[in-house]
Amino acid sequence: MFLCGRLRTNYSLNMALAKPQLRGLLQNYLKKNFAYAFLFSLASVGYYQFGVRGPRKQAYKDFYKNYDIEADFERMKKAGVFQLTVLKYSIDLWIQ
Prior knowledge:
With about 100 residues, this protein is mainly alpha-helical. The chain has helices at about 25-65, 70-80, 85-95, and strands at about 1-5, 5. It is about 65% helix and about 5% strand. The chain is rod-shaped and about 105 Å long.
């Protein structure tokens, strides 16, 4: 039904509004957010353990399985990384 160009409604404006929760509001809020934070932290720890730490440990294990420290030292000595190794080895050979 139209009355003066406006829609006339048949419902009442005296609806009862829900009362706001005043007691325990902070406790309920914190309980919910602590649960979300705990689940998020578990997911983060799981990702770090299986996505970062595990592959990193495996990469180190694979690297040091075939690593020869003497060959690496000789390679760096030939490249000129160490400046005093020639003098040190000549002194060691002279002492023996």
